[in-house]
Amino acid sequence: MDISVVVPLYNEAESLPELEAWIRRVMDANGFSYEIIFVNDGSTDQSWDVIKQLRQNNPAVKGVCFRRNYGKSPALNTGFGMAQGDVVITMDADLQDSPDEIPELYRMITRNGFDLVSGWKQKRYDPLSKTIPTKLFNATARKVSGIKNLHDFNCGLKAYRQKVVKRIEVYGDMHRYIPYLAKNAGFTRIGEKVVHHQARKYGKTKFGLDRFVNGYLDLATLWFTNKFGVKPMHFFGLLGSLMFIIGFLAVIAVGAIKLYNMYHGNQYTLVTNSPYFYIALTTMILGTQLFLTGFIGELIVRNSHRRNDYEIEEVLGEKKTNDKDGE
Ligand code: UDP
Ligand code: MG
């Protein structure tokens, strides 16, 4: 099969028939073999009935229905699990993304050798309250992820080589950073294509401004887990040591000041009157806690099955498995 189109949706009943007809038109015109996987993320409207109806007329339509609403990332992850096409394309259900982009995205993956091609809504039809924070968000994501050529991380329209979607795991709200997830999994050929964008025709947006707060927190999480996921002590231990060094210097200062004053017969002062005493106290406590956090982190990693989970591209000769866990 050439293409799997994965469409996560939450209460988008009005848009679905138009979307399906449009995708079908594009696929038939280009002679692609395809499937459309609608992942109904616990919609409370007629969406699922509409999908069942669509399937009766077009056997390429497939669907999964969550019992409740989980979010866009779980929906995408489930669709990725089902996808069988060589190229997997994700698309929002609200008709803001145009299926006319599919042939070119497919070509970029199959001919130009990209692992992932992300859409770029260069001209957006969204309210200003969304477009301005988005600029800031993308600048930060570029900096942190090191993927310098992407302008629009969170674009719903993206294309992937099949093995990319089978390797990465999208959970929580991580759909905003799929290119970063892919890069961390070793898929570095990441491209971009300017795509058409339209104003929402039916229904309303499912994400409010909290997306930006959560977006930054998720970015911090990804940065941390990517850099220190299997060696947390390198992070906490470094900070802890820094605290101890500061604390140690402060202790020396406290002692030296005290001895100096005694030697010169100055007025008798308590060490607790010195600011260095309090600096020493707090940094020592913080240092201990950071080290303890590091140790707990290491214990968790030790028990994680992922600690030795690597991206192996190819093996020459026989691969000897030496699985100590007996998995
Ligand atoms: N969506 C989903 N589950 C959710 C929220 C959204 O599957 O909990 C889908 C939604 O139906 C749409 C896509 O994710 O197909 C993008 O959502 P939306 O258009 O509201 O986001 P925006 O375009 O405003 O960024
Ligand atoms: Mg939308």
Beginning-to-end CA distance, first to last residue: 32 Å
Q: What is the CATH superfamily of the largest domain?
A: Spore Coat Polysaccharide Biosynthesis Protein SpsA, Chain A
CATH-scheme architecture of the largest domain: Alpha-Beta Complex
Radius of gyration: 27 Å
Largest beta-sheet details: 7 strands, mixed
Per the principal axes of the C-alpha atoms, what is the gross shape? elongated
The average pLDDT value, as a whole number, equals: 94
Number of domains: 2
| CATH class call of the largest domain | Alpha Beta
* Topology, number of strands: 7
Helix share bin: 40-55%
Write out the strand line-up for the largest beta sheet, numbering strands in chain order. Answer: 3-2-1-4-6-5-7
CATH topology call of the largest domain? Spore Coat Polysaccharide Biosynthesis Protein SpsA, Chain A
Each distinct ligand: uridine-5'-diphosphate, magnesium ion
Write a structural description.
This protein is α/β, with parallel strands linked by helices and 327 residues long. The chain has 2 domains: 3-228, Alpha-Beta Complex (Spore Coat Polysaccharide Biosynthesis Protein SpsA, Chain A); 233-302. 48% of the residues lie in helices and 11% in strands. It is built from 10 helices and 7 strands. A 7-stranded mixed β-sheet has the order 3-2-1-4-6-5-7, with helices on both faces. It starts with a strand and ends in a 25-residue tail after the last helix. Uridine-5'-diphosphate (UDP) is lined by residues 8-10, 12, 41, 69, 71-72, 75, 92-94, 96, 156, 205-207.
